Amino acid sequence: MKPNFSIFIKLFILQYLSVLCHSQDFDFFYFVQQWPGSYCDTRHSCCYPKTGKPAADFGIHGLWPNYKDGGYPSNCNPDSVFDKSQISDLVSRLERNWPTLSCPSGDGNKFWSHEWVKHGTCAESELDQHDYFEAALKLKEKVNLLKILTDAGIKPDDEFYELETIEEAIKDAIGYTPGLECNKDGSKNTQLFQIYLCVDTSASEIIECPVLPRGSCASRVQFPKF
C-alpha cells in the first residue's frame, strides 16, 4: 500500500500551526484596571467575593498581550492550565488587588484561570504563570490610579467629571496617555469603568500606547461611589 502523503502533509501543517500558536509573539500589553462601583452598576448583579467586599479601589482586570494593529492573540496554549499551586505565595495579594465581582460569589480562582488561559498563555515566551500574575501586581503598585485621581480632585463621589480632565491627570502622573472605557448604569449615566495602560513585553515598564482601545465615553462621566 502506498503511503498517503496528503495526510502526512496535513498533519505536519497542523503540528506547525499548533507550535506557532503556542509561541505567539506580541507587541505590548494592555494592563487593565476596573472601578468596582461601575462594574456593579453595569451588571446589576455583582457579587462580592467570599473574602468580603473589596476595598474601594481600582481592581486588576487583566494583563493582555496585544498587537500594534489593534488585534490580539488569545487562548494560545490549551495545554497550559491554571495551577493555583504555582501562585500560592501571591493569593492573598491577588484577593486584595485582583478580586472577582462575578456571581455567584467566588474565591477568585475562576477569574484568574480565565485570564491566564485566554491572555497569559499568549505571553509564555516572556512570563511563566507566576511571573505573569506577579507582574500585574507590581504594575498596580507602581501606578496607584485612585491616588492619582483623588490628588487631582477627582473622587468616587457620584459626581461627574470632564473626561479630558481624568485623562490629563493620569498622563501628568505617569507620563503616558491612558485608554479610558465607560459604561452606562441603569439610569443611563455614563460612568468611568476601566483604565488601560500600555506596558512593554517584559510587563515591567509603562509605555506610550501603540494603539488606544476604542472607548464609549461621553465628554463628562460619573465616578460612582463603591
From TrEMBL:
GO BP terms, alphabetized: RNA catabolic process
Function comment: May remobilize phosphate, particularly when cells senesce or when phosphate becomes limiting.
UniProt keyword rRNA processing, yes or no: no
Keywords from the named record: Disulfide bond, Endonuclease, Hydrolase, Lyase, Nuclease, Signal
Family: Belongs to the RNase T2 family.
Pfam families per the UniProt record, alphabetical: Ribonuclease_T2
Signal peptide positions (record): 1-23
Cellular component aspect of the GO annotation: extracellular region
GO molecular function: hydrolase activity; ribonuclease T2 activity; RNA binding
Top-level taxon: Eukaryota
Catalytic-site annotation from UniProt: 61, 115, 119
SUPFAM superfamilies found in the cross-reference section: Ribonuclease Rh-like
The protein's name: Uncharacterized protein
Annotated InterPro entries: Ribonuclease_T2_eukaryotic (IPR033697), RNase_T2-like (IPR001568), RNase_T2-like_sf (IPR036430), RNase_T2_His_AS_1 (IPR018188), RNase_T2_His_AS_2 (IPR033130)
